[in-house]
Structure formats: structure tokens, C-alpha cells
């Protein structure tokens, strides 16, 4: 009997403590310093309005007032850090070759028309700007704009050179980097822990496991940014107040010491659901549509 009472009281204490810390994480963990807050995020610069990952796309998004540019990086044969999503150039340039096999001068231009990855049967036709830019071009052009960098390949030299560029342009407080690969994120953090990192996919799954076991409030986290598809977007809920435990978990993430970005949303119905659930920001291929939606619904810009 005494043993049962002891076990019951211990479990009850654990559950109550976990619930309290889950609600008030700052009781145990110091809130990470946030140097920027992004509500409006332009995916690949806005791949539905301009050719993805081009200077024209980035300029359009920044002129529109986006809070953050999301882009992807690779390394050329002559070790130049370029902004492009695909490892192979077939989809975007019509050339069967990897970026890593060519020097920067040898890289072909983008095709005139590209499919929008996260929008079915949608294509974007570009103007004169079809050049694959260097990361330093983007840093030069937009010194005050937060940038989200996806390190596309597990390459030590690429990670080192991106870090060097971030430091050179004094952007450690305006950059977040990472990948869905936990190995890449670990290397990024080891290379430069001053640059905030994204949660990798394995770490997101680990978060879920910690959440359901009640251990999450007790575990310190080095990551500061989480990019995920929203469960309510996938299931197309009609009433955001009727959330499953998993969906409430996502909403809770917004309240703790990191920012939650929902990707890649391309219609107003999904914008609405994401913000109602408490997402920090929305990533979109259509920055003009998102801006108009935010303005019309009185959703405040980042401060």
C-alpha cells in the first residue's frame, strides 16, 4: 500500500511539474535572445511571383516589405557559395550536371519558365534576370534583411564558407541556417554557434517524443527556429479551436523559446489557419498575396 501511494504521488508530482513547466518554460530555461522576429517569409524569394532564388525575386520581396528571405545554398567546383535549390541543374537550367561539377563562370542561366514546387500546376515565367546569384550578392544587396539559409548538401567546405560570409558581413544576428539533416545542423552549430540554427527532422521527431513523455520542459534546446508543415493545414480543419493534442503541441511551440515558421503556404485559407494556431510566421511562394492578407486582417508586422 505504501509503495503504491509513493508511486502515485511521484507520478502525480512529475505530471504536475511537467505541465507547469510546459506552460511556463522560462521558470527553468532562460529565454533565448531574439534579434529578429519574422512574420512574412518569402520562400526562395517568392517562387510564385519571380524565378526562384534570383536577385529579382529577392528585391521584389524586400521592396514589398518581407520580414525574411528564405534561400538555398550550394558550392561550385571553384568553391563559390551560390544560391540555388537543386543539386542538379536539370530542372532549373535544363542542363544535366551538378552545381558542384562546374565553376561559377560555367553555370548556365535559369530557364525562362519554372514550376512552383509547392503549388500544383503553377509555373512562373521570369524576365531578364536568370543568373544564379552568389550568396555574397544577396548579403551585399540586403544588409538589413534577415535571411534563412538552407544548407543543401553535407559539405564541410560549404558550411565553413557560409559561416565566413555571415561573419564578414556581420550577419550573425540576422541569419538562421540548417537543414532537415541532423548531421548538417550539428556541423553548422559546431562551425559557428553564434548563428541560430533550425531544428532538423530527427530533432522535430525527438521533440514530439519528449512532449508526449512529459520530458520536454526539462530538456535544454540549442535550436531557435522550427520550420514545419502545420498539421491543421494538412487535415484542413474548419475550426481551429477544435485541436488535437498534436496540433496543440504545435501551437504551444510558439510560446516557448524559439520561433515557429509554417511552410510553404500559398492560399489565404492556409494563412488564416496558421496565424490562428499561433505560428510566428508563414513562408510562402506568393509574398504579395501574404502581405495583402496580413494588411487586410490587421496582422501586425514583425518588430
TrEMBL record:
InterPro entries to which the protein is assigned, alphabetical: GDPD-Related (IPR052271), GP_PDE_dom (IPR030395), PLC-like_Pdiesterase_TIM-brl (IPR017946)
First-listed, main subcellular location of the protein, grouped into a coarse class: membrane
Domain of life: Eukaryota
Transmembrane stretches, start-end: 6-24
GO biological process, one term: N-acylethanolamine metabolic process
Swiss-Prot/TrEMBL keywords: Hydrolase, Lipid metabolism, Membrane, Transmembrane, Transmembrane helix
Any one GO molecular-function label of the UniProt entry: phosphoric diester hydrolase activity
Reaction it catalyzes: N-(5Z,8Z,11Z,14Z-eicosatetraenoyl)-1-(9Z-octadecenoyl)-sn-glycero-3-phosphoethanolamine + H2O = N-(5Z,8Z,11Z,14Z-eicosatetraenoyl)-ethanolamine + 1-(9Z-octadecenoyl)-sn-glycero-3-phosphate + H(+); 1-O-(1Z-octadecenyl)-sn-glycero-3-phospho-N-hexadecanoyl-ethanolamine + H2O = 1-O-(1Z-octadecenyl)-sn-glycero-3-phosphate + N-hexadecanoylethanolamine + H(+); N,1-di-(9Z-octadecenoyl)-sn-glycero-3-phosphoethanolamine + H2O = N-(9Z-octadecenoyl) ethanolamine + 1-(9Z-octadecenoyl)-sn-glycero-3-phosphate + H(+); 1-O-hexadecyl-sn-glycero-3-phosphocholine + H2O = 1-O-hexadecyl-sn-glycero-3-phosphate + choline + H(+)
Localisation per UniProt entry: Membrane
Domain GP-PDE: 38-294
Keyword Lyase among record annotations: no
GO CC annotations on file: endoplasmic reticulum membrane
Family: Belongs to the glycerophosphoryl diester phosphodiesterase family.
Protein name stated in the entry: Glycerophosphodiester phosphodiesterase domain containing 1
Native organism: Nothobranchius furzeri (Turquoise killifish)
Phylogenetic placement of the source organism: Eukaryota, Metazoa, Chordata, Craniata, Vertebrata
Amino acid at each position: 500500500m505504501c509503495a503504491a501511494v509513493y508511486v502515485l504521488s511521484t507520478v502525480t508530482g512529475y505530471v504536475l511539474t511537467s505541465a507547469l513547466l510546459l506552460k511556463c518554460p522560462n521558470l527553468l530555461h532562460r529565454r533565448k535572445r531574439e534579434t529578429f522576429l519574422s512574420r512574412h517569409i518569402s520562400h526562395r524569394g517568392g517562387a510564385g511571383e519571380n524565378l526562384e532564388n534570383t536577385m529579382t525575386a529577392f528585391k521584389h520581396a524586400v521592396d514589398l516589405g518581407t520580414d525574411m528571405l528564405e534561400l538555398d545554398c550550394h558550392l561550385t567546383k571553384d568553391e563559390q557559395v551560390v544560391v540555388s535549390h537543386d543539386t542538379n541543374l536539370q530542372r532549373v537550367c535544363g542542363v544535366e550536371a551538378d552545381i558542384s561539377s562546374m565553376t561559377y563562370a560555367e553555370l548556365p542561366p535559369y530557364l525562362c519558365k519554372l514550376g512552383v514546387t509547392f503549388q500544383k500546376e503553377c509555373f512562373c515565367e521570369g524576365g531578364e534576370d536568370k543568373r544564379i546569384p552568389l550568396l555574397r550578392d544577396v548579403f551585399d544587396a540586403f544588409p538589413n534583411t534577415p535571411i534563412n539559409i538552407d544548407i543543401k548538401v553535407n559539405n564541410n567546405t560549404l558550411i565553413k564558407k557560409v559561416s565566413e560570409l555571415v561573419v564578414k558581413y556581420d550577419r550573425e544576428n540576422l541569419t538562421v541556417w540548417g537543414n532537415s539533416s541532423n548531421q548538417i545542423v550539428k556541423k553548422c552549430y559546431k562551425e559557428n554557434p553564434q548563428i541560430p540554427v533550425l531544428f532538423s527532422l530527427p530533432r522535430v521527431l525527438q521533440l514530439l517524443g519528449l512532449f508526449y513523455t512529459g520530458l520536454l520542459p526539462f530538456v535544454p534546446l540549442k535550436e531557435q527556429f522550427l520550420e514545419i508543415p502545420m498539421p491543421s493545414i494538412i487535415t484542413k480543419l474548419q475550426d481551429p479551436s477544435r485541436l488535437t493534442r498534436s496540433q496543440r503541441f504545435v501551437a504551444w511551440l510558439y510560446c516557448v523559446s524559439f520561433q515557429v515558421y509554417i511552410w510553404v503556404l500559398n492560399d489565404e485559407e492556409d494563412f488564416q489557419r496558421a496565424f490562428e494556431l499561433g505560428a510566428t510566421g508563414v513562408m510562402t511562394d506568393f509574398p504579395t498575396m501574404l502581405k495583402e492578407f496580413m494588411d487586410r486582417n490587421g496582422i501586425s508586422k514583425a518588430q
